[in-house]
Design goal:
This protein has strands at 33-38, 45-53, 58-63, 68-74, 77-81, 91-93, 98-101, 107-110, 116-124, 129-130. By secondary structure, the chain is an all-beta fold. It has a five-stranded antiparallel β-sheet, with no helix packed on it. A five-stranded antiparallel β-sheet has the order 6-5-8-3-10, with no helix packed on it. It starts with 32 loop residues before the first strand and ends in a 9-residue tail after the last strand.
Length: 139
């Protein structure tokens, strides 16, 4: 039986760090960036993205409908759980850490000690809902 390939996975390819196309993402604070590496996050199916957040930036409490696996690529990723941002409740994850975040889990991030980059692996479509709609950047 012939196996059907996932989006962007039918031929061998590689992505070198200098080829990553970082772009603003409307649901993020203005200086944060997102890069789509594999798949089509807006559609049903697997995807891999990277998120780059500059020093000091906070992503206020939000949730995603999809289960996510975060891999910390660089910097220290600070994440806390809950519907209210609390800097005392963030936990630090160094490069190489893997975090499993079930869908519909309220959480928040903070680039507390410098820029961080995480890689997110999930099955789309990607969704993001802020607990407080006022935290959702204007589009």
């Amino acid at each position: 039986m012939a196996r059907i390939h996932q989006p962007d996975q039918s031929v061998f390819r590689s992505i070198l760090p200098e080829e990553i196309d970082w772009k603003p993402f409307p649901a993020f604070p203005p200086k944060a960036r997102l890069a789509v590496l594999v798949g089509h996050p807006a559609e049903a199916g697997p995807y891999v993205v990277r998120v780059k957040v500059p020093d000091g930036t906070k992503l206020m409490p939000h949730k995603h409908p999809e289960d996510r696996i975060y891999t910390v690529m660089s910097g220290v990723f600070y994440i806390g759980l809950g519907e209210t941002f609390d800097g005392d409740k963030v936990k630090a994850y160094p490069p190489g850490s893997v975090i499993v975040l079930p869908g519909e889990t309220w959480h928040f991030h903070w680039a507390k000690s410098g820029e961080y980059v995480t890689q997110v692996t999930a099955i789309g479509p990607l969704g993001l809902e802020y607990h407080d709609p006022r935290d959702d950047p204007p589009r």
